[in-house]
Each structure stands twice: as C-alpha cells, then as structure tokens.
C-alpha cells in the first residue's frame, strides 16, 4: 500500500509504507530576532504606528474595461441559474403556453438565493423566498392600474424586503428580486380574477428552482461547509504569509478572522440533530476548531516576530484547503517546524499537526462541540433595530429611491415604467455612493451594449415560444457566470432577457421594438437611484463609526478584565465573550469600509479614525490569544485597585470614542506581566486623542471658524448604548466590494 502526501499544494513522491526514511532535511531557521513579547522584562517595541489606511481598502469604483475581465467565471452559479429558471419556464410553456410561463420564470429567480448556505438552511431559505416572490407578485397585481396604490406599494415592498433580507442575513441579491417581481405585477393589466393563477405559477417556478438548488445534496451533501472551511484555510495562509509586515498583516488578520467566523457560522448552521450523528459532521466541527487554533497561533507569531516566516508554513496551511474535501491530499508537517523554540512556534506546530490529522480522516468517531448557538429570527430582528445597525437606513434609502422612480415613471409618458423602478432598485445595491456610482455606470454601459446588439442584429426577430425559452435560460445563466467578473458584461447579457420576456406571447411583436425604450427607462431609473443614494442618509456608516469604535473598546474591556484577573481557567463565559468581541471588531472594520465610500465631503473624519481602528484591532486580537485552559499555573492577577483603574481607563476611552472628544484619561496601572497590553492601551489613547483634535475648515476665514459653534456629540452620534449580549448576531453592512458583484 502506498501513501501519497501533498506538500504546499504539490504532490510529493509516494513512499512505501514501512520503508526506511531518508536523511532528515536540514531545518531552516524559524526563530528570528525576538519581537515585543519575547522578553516581558524588556521594553515593548510594537509595530509602527499606522498613519493612513492602505490602498487595498479603497472602494473599487473604477470602470473596468469591457474587454478585460478579472476574477474567475462562476460556472456552477451560471449552470444552476440556467436550469433553475429554464426548467420551470419550459415545463409551463409546454403545458399552458408561453404567456403563462413568464410568471413561472419570475419564480425561477429563487435560484439566486442561498447559494453558499448549508443545505439544511438553504431548503428553508429558498422556500421562504419563493413564498415572498409569490406574495410580492400578488400585491403588485392587486394594485395594478392605480398609481395611488402601486407607487407606495412598490416602495413598501422594497423597504420591507431589503430590511428583512438584511436583518435575517439572506445575502445577495437581497430585496432586489422582490422589488422586481412586485413592479412586474403592478404594471400588468388589472385583472383581479387572474391573481390566484399568477401566484400559483410563481410558486411552481419557485418549486422548480428549489429542486435545482437542492439537487447538489444528492451528490455532495457537505459541499457548502467544505467551501467555507477551504476559504477559511486560504485566508489563514494569507495571514501567515503577511506576518512580518505592517498594514498587510492588519488586513490579512481581519480577513482571516472574518473567514474563521464565516466557517464557524456555516458549520453551526448545518449542525442539525440528524447531521450531528455522522462522522463527517464531527470531522467538520473538529476542523472548525483547528482553524481557530491556527488563527490563534498566527496571531501569537504576528506579535512576537518582526520578520516574515518561512513560506513552507503558509504553503502547508494553504494545502489544508484542498484536504477539506479530499482527505487524501492532506499535507505533511514542514521540516521547518521539526524543532521549535518559542511558545508561538510550539502552538503553531501543535495546531498544524492537529489540523492535518483531522483533515486526513474521512470521518471522526468523536467530535468536538462547537461553542455557541444559532440566533433565532426574533433575536436577529431585534438586533437589526439597534441604533448601531445599518439595516434600517439602507432599507429606507432603497424604498424611498424606488418609490420616487416609480412615481416619475407614472407621471412621465413612459412605455415600460417597470424598467424604471427595477433600474432604481439595482442602482441602490452598492451600499454607499462610491459603489453605487460604479454600479450605475457599468449598468448603463452594459444596457447600452445589450440594446445595441438587439437593435443591430435581432431587431426584426419574431421568436417562437421555444426560442424565447432557450434564449432566456441561456442568457440568464451567462449573466450569472460573468457578472461577478464584470458588471457591464453581465448587464449586457441580461438586457435581452427583459426584451424576450416582454415580447413573449405576442405573435406580432419584434424583440427590438422596445430596445430604445429599455435604454431610456434604465438610464432614468439609474439616475433616480443615484440621486437617492446622494441625498438619503449619505453618512450612515460615518455617523455610526464612532459608536462602533466605542462598542469594540467596551467589548475588549470585558476581555481584559477577565484576562488580567486570572479568570480564563475553566471559565465557560470566556469563549462567549471572545466571540462577541470578535464580532464587534469585524463590524468596526466593515463600518469603516462603508464610511470610505460615502462621498459627502466629510470622509476625512472617518480617515482620521484609522489609527484608532488599527490599534483597537491589534489590542483585541492580542487579548484573544489568551488560552482557554492553562497548562501550568495561570498568571498572577493584578490587584483589585489596578483593575478598577483599568476599567475607568477603558470606559473613558470608549466614551471619548463615541462622543468624538478628547479623553480625560485617568492613571493607567502598571499591568505587571502584560507590558505589550499596556503599550497598546497607551497608543489607543493617543490615537483617540489625535482623532478628536479639531481640524479647521480651510475654505472659511479664521475669525469665522473661531465663532462657529460645534454641534453637540449626541446630535451627531446619538446616545451611548451598552454593548449587546452574545446572541450570535452580527449587523455588518455589505462587504466593501467592487461594482462587479453578482446581483
């Protein structure tokens, strides 16, 4: 029998079992000059103080060339979309005709949701999405023919759908498809007697999309969890590769922490009573814990090292991503870890060896229980109403923008008003002005290309029913394949879909009859959506950024109190507190990314908080490296008087961050045994003080600047609120991705 191992993603030479091993390779030196935590008695030397955020955090608002694509083609998403819409469309066409089949095609939009969710959660989510699409079409059909009814109704559907998708973390395309289906029903002929039939057809199309989306369970029932864990190990490998650098390490640490959290949530959502008894489910739980151990080891290395680590370590961690789904590709331990010298190196060797052992087993007899629980829908909705949440302003902005666009379409002599409302909803999917502008521009370019192709080559085409079915399915699948790489190309592919559906069931209609109308209506809707993004809550993220910084500091204060008090040994609340602090740090980074895209002339206020955000991140993850169980005697707790001083110091830092004022800091205790933490706290105080310094407006005379009263902090940032409990819910905004996101 021969065993094949993989090193750094490359297949190694097969070795015969029981053969005499060759000479041991020479160990590359891993221990480099010690970092700040190597000698607790010496003065701590932390990484350079961050001045400005790195260019990688800038919102991607560049208009990508049409002929240039970036990223990868999502072939699986394209095939799933083509089958999910095409099969119900074809079946209903064969039974009832092309006219009724268009409603089944609307139900096929269900296939776009929950693509990365575990199948247990996906089944429920898709069923609810199908019911929601049917309800949206029914409401729109009942209000058809009366602008006084359908204008506020479409705005209400857009608001409620966006809020529920954001609060329940449904994911993209979010409330957009519900708005689209409701607008389609609102601009149909008013025929109340046909509403039940239309709803039934939408449900039939949603059922077909449900079966297509769930068909992967028959072949790879654990594929979503495998993908989440593989992405987690990839992000961890990037973190290991970034150790020894400054800003790249901060970005890689955040992305690795986010990937670990996503994998934890994904595995937890799939951990049902039935699945919990299988060996594969236990293996995934163990891998999830091993990924967290690797993150902890990487954080310890980032603290104690000042130079990059050998590439063999990051290559081995990256190879674990392939071993998640294929245990035979599990990597061997790199020779550089044969002899370890520091505590971080020993922790890395232990975590990497345990992860490789777990990845190499097809099933685990006894697994580890993943800490935490799944939040209920009520807890998620309650968290969405929190003042720190970005879900309400996003939902209100979308609803009002769509309502204004629908009102403009009703007042103007427009042939197809539904396209105006749909374009406005699409323009507001970016989350901030910079991303919305990029999306609007690329959608306009893509629509122009799609209309030009139809007008030049297919203007006089009179398609039959089956040509319409095949064309719609193929174009819809092509859209989902390329739209993640370039939004303009995806918009060019999806533009003919609307023209084919509009001409379906009309024997005398040409595909190109409404081509120019589609272009004009789309540009009008995109313009209204962009204006709404500019004037409706344009500083939602920037306003919430100081409050989120204060929440993160308060969460770290709880961790510090437990850590310096020596209470981490066998303390069940430690893991829950650490997970809550991790979510606050993830939210802080995401809110900052959203604030960078709010083009309102006050972006400089958010950028001035970047040093404080980075120091908060470094402090939080440094505290998280405290072990849950000490092998030896835990560190001696600091005196009670010092703990009270530490609580007062952190409380003042959090209050000053929330109110954007200079902190009146009390005396910072010595924190014997924790010199690095003390240095981080001093830096955090300096960063918050620097961010609160007034910056004069350059365009006003000095005597005017001195006489301008500053608005009270409660008016700008709201009242302070205590951090929420550990409900497992995170109210992060949409990630700051470029305009090429799939929608």
Describe the overall structure.
The protein has a two-stranded antiparallel sheet with strand order 1-4. The chain has a two-stranded antiparallel sheet with strand order 2-3. The protein is mainly α and 743 residues long. The radius of gyration is 28 Å and the shape is globular. The chain starts with a strand and ends in a 26-residue tail after the last helix. The longest helix is centred in the middle third of the chain and has 26 residues. The chain is built from 26 helices and four strands. Helix 3 packs parallel to helix 5, helix 14 crosses helix 18 and helix 15 packs antiparallel against helix 18.
Report the count of strand segments: 4
Mean pLDDT: 78
Structural class: mainly alpha
Poorly predicted ranges (pLDDT <50, ≥5 residues)?
1-44, 61-68, 697-743
What letter string, H or E per element, gives the SSE order? EEEEHHHHHHHHHHHHHHHHHHHHHHHHHH
Record the strand order, biggest sheet. 1-4
Strand percentage lies at under 5%
- N-to-C CA distance: 49 Å
Helices, by number, come to 26
Can you tell me the overall shape?
Answer: globular
Percent of residues in helices: 55-70%
The main pleated sheet reads as: 2 strands, antiparallel
- Tell me the Rg in angstroms: 28 Å
Summarize the topology.
Elements: E1 2-3, E2 6-7, E3 10-11, E4 15-16, H1 75-96, H2 98-107, H3 119-142, H4 147-167, H5 176-186, H6 195-214, H7 223-242, H8 247-269, H9 279-304, H10 311-325, H11 343-359, H12 377-384, H13 391-411, H14 418-427, H15 433-457, H16 465-482, H17 487-503, H18 515-535, H19 540-564, H20 572-596, H21 603-607, H22 610-624, H23 640-659, H24 675-692, H25 702-707, H26 713-717
Antiparallel strand pairs: 1-4, 2-3
Helix pairs in contact: 1-2, 1-6, 1-16, 2-6, 3-5, 3-6, 4-5, 4-12, 4-13, 5-14, 7-8, 7-9, 7-10, 8-9, 8-20, 9-11, 10-11, 13-14, 13-18, 14-18, 15-17, 15-18, 16-17, 19-20, 19-22, 19-23, 20-22, 22-24, 23-24
């Amino acid at each position: 029998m021969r065993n094949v191992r993989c090193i750094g993603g490359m297949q190694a030479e097969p070795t015969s079992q029981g053969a005499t091993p060759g000479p041991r390779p020479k160990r590359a030196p891993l221990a480099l000059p010690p970092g700040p935590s190597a000698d607790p008695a010496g003065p701590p030397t932390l990484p350079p103080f961050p001045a400005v955020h790195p260019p990688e955090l800038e919102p991607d608002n560049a208009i990508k060339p049409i002929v240039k694509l970036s990223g990868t083609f999502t072939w699986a998403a394209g095939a799933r979309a083509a089958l999910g819409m095409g099969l119900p469309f074809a079946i209903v066409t064969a039974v009832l005709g092309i006219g009724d089949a268009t409603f089944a095609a609307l139900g096929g939009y269900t296939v776009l949701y929950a693509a990365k969710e575990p199948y247990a959660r996906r089944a429920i989510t898709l069923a609810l999405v199908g019911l929601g699409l049917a309800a949206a079409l029914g409401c729109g059909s009942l209000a058809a023919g009366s602008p006084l009814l359908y204008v506020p109704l479409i705005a209400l559907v857009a608001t409620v759908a966006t809020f529920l998708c954001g609060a329940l973390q449904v994911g993209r395309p979010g409330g957009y498809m519900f708005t689209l289906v409701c607008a389609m029903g609102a601009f149909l002929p008013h025929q109340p007697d046909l509403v039940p039939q239309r709803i039934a057809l939408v449900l039939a199309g949603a059922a077909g999309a449900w079966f297509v989306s769930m068909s992967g369970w028959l072949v790879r029932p654990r594929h979503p969890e495998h993908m989440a864990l593989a992405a987690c190990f990839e992000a961890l490998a990037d973190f290991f590769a970034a150790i020894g650098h400054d800003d790249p390490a901060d970005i890689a640490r955040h992305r690795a922490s986010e990937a670990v959290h996503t994998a934890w949530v994904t595995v937890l959502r799939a951990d049902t009573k039935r699945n919990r008894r299988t060996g594969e489910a236990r293996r995934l739980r163990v891998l999830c814990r091993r990924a967290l151990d690797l993150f902890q080891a990487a954080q310890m290395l980032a603290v104690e090292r000042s130079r990059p680590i050998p590439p063999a370590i990051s290559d081995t961690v990256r190879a674990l991503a392939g071993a998640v789904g294929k245990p035979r590709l599990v990597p061997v331990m790199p020779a550089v870890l044969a002899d370890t010298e520091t505590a971080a190196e020993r922790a890395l060797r232990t975590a990497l060896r345990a992860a490789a052992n777990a990845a190499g087993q097809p099933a685990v007899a006894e697994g580890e229980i993943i800490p935490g629980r799944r939040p209920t829908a009520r807890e998620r909705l309650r968290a969405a109403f929190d003042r720190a949440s970005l879900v309400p302003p996003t939902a209100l902005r979308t609803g009002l923008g769509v309502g204004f666009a629908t009102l403009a379409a009703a007042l103007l002599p427009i042939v197809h008003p539904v396209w105006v409302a749909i374009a406005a909803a699409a323009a507001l999917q970016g989350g901030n002005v910079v991303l919305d502008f990029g999306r609007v521009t690329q959608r306009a370019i893509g629509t122009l290309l799609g209309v030009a192709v139809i007008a030049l080559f297919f203007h006089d085409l009179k398609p039959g029913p089956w040509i319409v079915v095949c064309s719609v399915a193929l174009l819809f699948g092509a859209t989902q394949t390329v739209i993640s790489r370039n939004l303009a190309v995806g918009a060019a592919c999806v533009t003919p879909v609307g023209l084919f559906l509009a001409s379906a069931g009309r024997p005398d209609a040409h595909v190109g009859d409404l081509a120019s109308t589609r272009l004009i209506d789309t540009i009008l809707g995109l313009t209204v959506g962009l204006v709404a993004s500019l004037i409706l809550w344009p500083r939602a993220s920037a306003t919430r950024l100081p409050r989120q910084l204060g929440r993160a500091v308060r969460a770290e204060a709880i961790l510090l109190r437990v850590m310096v008090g020596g209470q981490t040994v066998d303390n069940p609340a430690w893991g829950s507190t650490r997970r809550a602090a991790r979510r606050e740090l993830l939210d802080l980074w995401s809110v900052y990314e959203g604030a960078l895209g709010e083009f309102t002339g006050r972006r400089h206020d958010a950028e001035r908080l970047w040093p404080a955000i980075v120091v908060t991140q470094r402090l939080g993850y440094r505290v998280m490296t405290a072990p849950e169980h000490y092998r030896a005697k835990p560190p001696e707790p600091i005196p009670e008087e010092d703990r009270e001083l530490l609580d007062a110091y952190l409380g003042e830092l959090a209050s000053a961050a929330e109110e954007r004022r200079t902190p009146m800091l009390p005396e910072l205790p010595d924190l014997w045994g924790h010199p690095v933490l003390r240095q981080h706290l001093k830096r955090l105080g300096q960063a918050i003080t620097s961010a609160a310094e007034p910056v004069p407006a350059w365009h006003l005379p000095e005597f005017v600047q001195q006489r301008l009263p500053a608005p009270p902090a409660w008016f700008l940032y709201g009242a302070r609120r205590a951090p929420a409990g550990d409900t497992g819910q995170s109210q992060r905004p949409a990630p700051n991705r470029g305009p090429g996101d799939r929608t």
